[in-house]
């Protein structure tokens, strides 16, 4: 809490704030960043292996291998989430498991699993994209803005 706000508190509240700050668990920020980086990097490494597999065995090009690679990563994530493994990965890695596309798959299937007792339509169907919906909306909107800026820069001869 800011020092200015602390001065406005009664003495008991100030003492409690000091008591709380002394006993607050310090987070290992550097260690958490390293774990997130390594796990996120490993997920990307697995994605690169899958992409290379599609290129080598199914004769995709580098451009056309992206979509099946993404779908495969999401499918694997959904299986791991269903078996409860991806949750443990997420507890260990934090944002390292949430930022790649696998985090999207985890969010979708977790919501589906959570609401399955309410039925397929009102439970799974209506709640599955509650968390992932805003990600899709803002992702599409951001992509639109970037494409618009790029198109204008090309039209004006800047790039």
Could you explain how this protein is built, in words?
- With 159 residues, this protein is an all-alpha fold.
- The chain has a domain at 34-128.
- Helices cover 79% and strands 0% of the residues.
- The chain contains nine helices and no strands.
- The protein has helices spanning 3-8, 11-23, 29-58, 66-82, 85-93, 95-98, 101-114, 120-127, 132-155.
- Helix 3 (29-58) crosses helix 4 and helix 4 (66-82) packs across helix 7 (101-114).
- The protein is extended, with a radius of gyration of 22 Å.
- The termini are far apart.
**How many helical stretches?**
9
Structural class by SSE content: mainly alpha
Radius of gyration: 22 Å
Q: Report the major sheet.
A: none
Shape: extended
- The share of residues in helices is over 70%
Are there runs of 5+ residues with pLDDT below 50, and where? none
Query: What is the rounded distance between the termini?
Result: 47 Å
Q: Give the DSSP E fraction (strand runs of 2 or more residues).
A: under 5%
Mean pLDDT: 90
């Amino acid at each position: 809490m800011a020092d200015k706000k602390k001065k406005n508190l009664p003495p008991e509240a100030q003492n409690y704030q000091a008591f709380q700050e002394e006993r607050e668990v310090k987070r290992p920020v550097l260690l958490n960043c390293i774990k997130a980086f390594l796990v996120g990097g490993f997920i990307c490494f697995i994605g690169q292996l899958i992409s290379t597999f599609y290129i080598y065995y199914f004769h995709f090009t580098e451009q056309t291998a992206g979509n099946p690679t993404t779908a495969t990563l999401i499918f694997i994530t959904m299986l791991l989430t269903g078996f409860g493994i991806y949750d443990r990965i997420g507890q260990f890695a934090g944002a390292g498991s949430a930022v790649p596309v696998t985090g999207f798959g985890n969010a979708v299937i977790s919501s589906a699993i959570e609401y399955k007792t309410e039925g397929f339509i009102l439970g799974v169907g209506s709640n599955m994209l509650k968390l992932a919906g805003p990600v899709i909306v803002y992702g599409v909107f951001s992509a639109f803005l970037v494409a618009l800026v790029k198109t204008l820069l090309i039209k004006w001869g800047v790039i």
